[in-house]
Design goal:
This protein has helices at 21-34, 50-63, 76-85, 118-127, 150-159, 166-172, 185-195, 223-231, 259-272, 289-297, 309-319, 342-356, 360-366, 384-394, 435-450; strands at 5-7, 10-14, 40-44, 68-73, 90-94, 103-109, 144-146, 175-179, 199-203, 236-240, 247-250, 280-284, 301-305, 323-326, 330-333, 337-340, 371-378, 400-401, 406-409, 413-419, 425-432. It is α/β, with parallel strands linked by helices. The longest helix is centred in the last third of the chain and has 16 residues, at 435-450. It is globular, with a radius of gyration of 22 Å.
């Protein structure tokens, strides 16, 4: 039998193959023990098969003597917020994020409402192989509370963000095409938009869990959505991934706004309304330099972390950043909670566009322009650590960062080399002012690696 993928992002596997009743129970019981068998919040992203996983998780937690709060089909950020607000000991988001239809999994959340970091995961993983009986007798079974109304609380928190100009958003009366891939954002995102005075055109918002396209919100997967924006003469398109932590925007022309521009726009909006002494933002090392430019323009400070939501959050806490996130469309605003949140991103982007008075395509043109190129290099026959060491030496005249693989900054661009934790490959991400320059950076770095 195949084993699921176990990483800092939780558990993911193919339903019925690598994700089975036996290992769902095993991992859930371990997390119950990790949380000292106290209150645990659960929710799911709505994909097919998720209800069966939910029932197994719910029953296992009860068997372990936990008090369970089930908020039903809900975005991962909503589950995180619920853990923090309800003072639970932990949470389980039943989701495979942007993975295809046949996948599902579990993301584990600590008592602070954020994902487990590397040390916390190491402690949890040790419990996976604990053979002791984790279950309680019938007289010690605790209550379960169903709390689907928590989605309304999440919306209310977003509407009360201090930098959100809800009045001007309502005045603009945006026509919005919203694509939630029939998953967890299907109800909450349209509801938020309606409260902001938008005319909402729903696309794949029936919450059936049936994906009509590849769920990752990449441009090649959003051609139909782009057509619908243009066909309906909408002002903007809002696209959410299955567990609603990532946001991608489409312009009124039916063209991608650029997932990197999601975090750039939000950072610009929040910092512009923050006292200059507190204008601190945090992003990961693979996020667009356009964020650096915007922060510099506003006289703020930019701090960078290793790739991964929990790494960005830890950096944000350490430097007291007021906003942060990742270039894949993940926005983090501590004022609401520490976690990527598409609701936060949606509201703040609408606020920024409304205040600018521009169309979305016009606003995009006003942002610093960069182009990202990504590739990978096989390390089956070479040692990735030696590649990193030699590449570092070859480009020693340029500024470097070793916090997450190797990042090298050039005058008009940068490159980041990271070895994969799950495959024998080296990931290479380069960004520059033009597509040609980004490709040239990739070529120079790749050729140098091949010659080693």
């Amino acid at each position: 039998m195949k084993e699921p993928i176990i990483s800092i992002s939780g558990i993911r596997g193919i339903f019925g193959e690598s994700l089975t009743p036996a290992n769902i129970v095993k991992y859930t019981a371990a997390f119950a023990k990790y949380c000292r068998k106290k209150k645990i919040v659960i929710g799911r992203d709505g994909r097919m098969g998720g209800e069966l996983v939910e029932k197994l998780v719910e029953t296992t937690l009860l068997f372990c003597g936990c008090e369970v709060v089930n908020i039903g089909i809900a975005p991962t950020p909503t589950i995180s917020l619920a853990v923090e607000t309800l003072k639970a000991s932990g949470g389980i988001a039943i989701t495979a994020s942007h993975n295809p239809q046949e996948w599902n999994g579990m993301k584990f959340i600590n008592s602070k409402g954020i994902f487990l970091d590397s040390e916390e995961n190491a402690e949890l993983w040790k419990m996976f192989d604990d053979k002791s009986n984790p279950y309680v007798t019938a007289d010690k079974i605790k209550q379960i509370e169903y709390y689907p109304g928590f989605l309304d609380y999440h919306i209310s928190r977003v509407l009360n963000i201090s930098s959100l100009n809800a009045a001007i958003v309502r005045k603009r009366k945006f026509k919005v095409v919203v694509d939630c891939v029939n998953a967890s954002g299907s109800k909450i995102i349209p509801a938020l938009l309606e409260k902001l005075g938008c005319k909402v055109i729903k696309l794949d918002c029936d919450q059936s869990g049936i994906f009509t396209r590849k769920p990752e919100p990449l441009p090649e997967n959003l051609k139909r959505t782009c057509r619908e924006v243009k066909k309906n003469k909408a002002d903007i398109g809002i696209v959410i991934d299955p567990d609603a932590d990532r946001l991608v925007v489409i312009t009124e022309k039916g063209e991608p706004f650029g997932e990197e521009n999601t975090i750039t726009t939000v950072v610009k909006h929040v910092l512009s309304k923050t006292a200059k002494s507190k204008r601190i933002a945090a992003i990961n090392l693979s996020t667009s330099r356009s964020v650096d430019d915007v922060v510099s323009m506003l006289g703020g400070k930019i701090c960078k972390s290793a790739v991964g939501e929990i790494n960005v959050i830890k950096k944000m806490k350490a430097v007291k950043a007021v906003v942060g996130g990742e270039g894949s469309g993940g926005v983090i605003l501590p004022e609401v909670h520490y976690g990527r949140d598409s609701l936060v991103g949606t509201a703040l982007i609408l606020s920024e566009i409304a205040e600018s008075g521009l169309k979305v395509s016009e606003y995009k043109k006003a942002l610093p322009e960069y182009h990202i190129k990504k590739t990978k290099f096989s390390t089956e026959k070479v040692n990735p650590d030696i590649i990193l060491k030699n590449t570092k030496k070859y480009f020693r005249e340029y500024p470097q960062n070793l916090e997450d693989g190797l990042r090298i900054d050039f005058e008009r661009g940068w490159v980041n080399l990271r070895k994969s934790n799950t495959e024998p490959i080296m990931r290479i991400i380069a960004e520059a002012k033009t597509v040609k320059e980004a490709a040239e950076i990739i070529d120079v770095v790749s050729n140098n690696m091949k010659n080693k």
